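User: My advisor, Dr. K., asked me to get a structural model of this assembly before our group meeting. I'm new to this, so sorry if the format is off. These are the inputs:
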Amino acid sequence: MSDNELLPFIAQAFDQMPFNCLLGLKVTHFAVDNVQVSFAWSDTLVGNPMQKILHGGVISSVLDTAGGLMAVSTALGRFSINDKAELAARLSKMSTIDIRTDYLRPGRGNTFIASAHVIRTGNKVAVCRMELHNEQGVHIAVGTGTYLVG
Amino acid sequence: MSDNELLPFIAQAFDQMPFNCLLGLKVTHFAVDNVQVSFAWSDTLVGNPMQKILHGGVISSVLDTAGGLMAVSTALGRFSINDKAELAARLSKMSTIDIRTDYLRPGRGNTFIASAHVIRTGNKVAVCRMELHNEQGVHIAVGTGTYLVG
Amino acid sequence: MSDNELLPFIAQAFDQMPFNCLLGLKVTHFAVDNVQVSFAWSDTLVGNPMQKILHGGVISSVLDTAGGLMAVSTALGRFSINDKAELAARLSKMSTIDIRTDYLRPGRGNTFIASAHVIRTGNKVAVCRMELHNEQGVHIAVGTGTYLVG
Amino acid sequence: MSDNELLPFIAQAFDQMPFNCLLGLKVTHFAVDNVQVSFAWSDTLVGNPMQKILHGGVISSVLDTAGGLMAVSTALGRFSINDKAELAARLSKMSTIDIRTDYLRPGRGNTFIASAHVIRTGNKVAVCRMELHNEQGVHIAVGTGTYLVG
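Assistant: The format is fine. Below is the predicted structure of the whole assembly, which you can bring to the meeting.
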């Protein structure tokens, strides 16, 4: 499978994950070297209702999702994948080992965009940096995730 | 307000946070020195549907919630709170600074219990350790959270 | 090589690492399931000279060393190691992926003891929890380290 | 005290910290918005002697030092400091709360440069991002540190 076939298939798999659906996450950009995952404000995603800001768990969730997508696509570029069954088998062995999230500013906005890029790559482990901004470019959070990929 | 008045009020505030409701989180134990937040399995909380395990973001969310509750209650014990308006004002200034989650085993089970205890306390910052187990005692994840409390 | 042969060899390798010598670290206990690394107070290890407390980097260093030892010994228990050349080859492929240190109390004391135990183990990655206490049992720091082991 | 007086005083304080001297760290650049801390290769800073690479603890130490300097200078910009006694008093209340280090590539080189910038600032807590490169621009490690500053 070429990148042109792989990436849409992976993006679709992420879009269809039940918890990603619950959050309203969508893979809005996906290339070999960077990814964007976006979602719209929803009152169901609020932590403190007096302050009307995103719950920290929502932010960690979307950062982990963006980092995981990036780690997966980087790792798959190292293998030759023959078909979707082989791809699914490889994907099922990949997982988050650990993640750190730093909350920088209150999670306010209409649309939120998480981006990720790889900072360490290897046969077994990838490390990604993730960022969350709102539609006005306000920098809400950063994260660092370590992923098992092989 | 005494601890006997404070803790139920705080627990109720957490139970009513919209995102905690979406996840089905409930504060099932709350004392000055430890807290438990529980939730039941739901298909909507799944990451990879083939593996039928909790999304990592669900795990980070519940660990953050349990740690935040613990940090808040420790911090409030340092102040004398006169009424609910003062409590609400103090609560609105408290927030997560950063959190690390380590995923240890796949998130499988019927019921999940997050617990937290304080490892560093102070006038401005508290640090908590959190753990997630399922109903059979399987250790699924640990976390460390740093909270702004003053 | 049996555990009785392996552990002393590994401990000696750690004791002889140049930077561990500079810090005065010694492996003072080493079993399959836990490890202790100790060092004495030295004025050269001070951060702020007015406060006379250990530099945070000293604390991170000893926690990483204790966690690394634990990860290595756990991982080696999964392989059958025939001789020291094979052991050295395996050791040279093991490394720290990431580490988080939480500083809980000022680093004061005469002797400091770092301990570690494994919280996640696998063919490729191990995660350890580490603690630092002084000789009076004061809890100075905790850490979590992720190690590449296979 | 103006920035022109403050920064050299702080840099000197860091250069004179005993453990920074042991590592050979020097503040080689220091402005209000970024800082560089450098050190030369030394055989005493080695972890594994077979591989001849920096000990992970050295890397965490220099990243923490660079991040701490950045946090301190940002925080001091918020106060008006009248004299060195007041500066020393403020400095003695500032400390690292937690730090995460990600090791990206083996620590090889002749000279190593740690840089830092602030990603969250406030009256009580600052968060910095740190990077370590060698003299050829090889990216060896990144870190994120949370600092108590007020």
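One thing worth pointing out at the meeting: The CA atoms of residues 58 and 107 of chain A lie 10 Å apart.

User: Perfect, thanks a lot.
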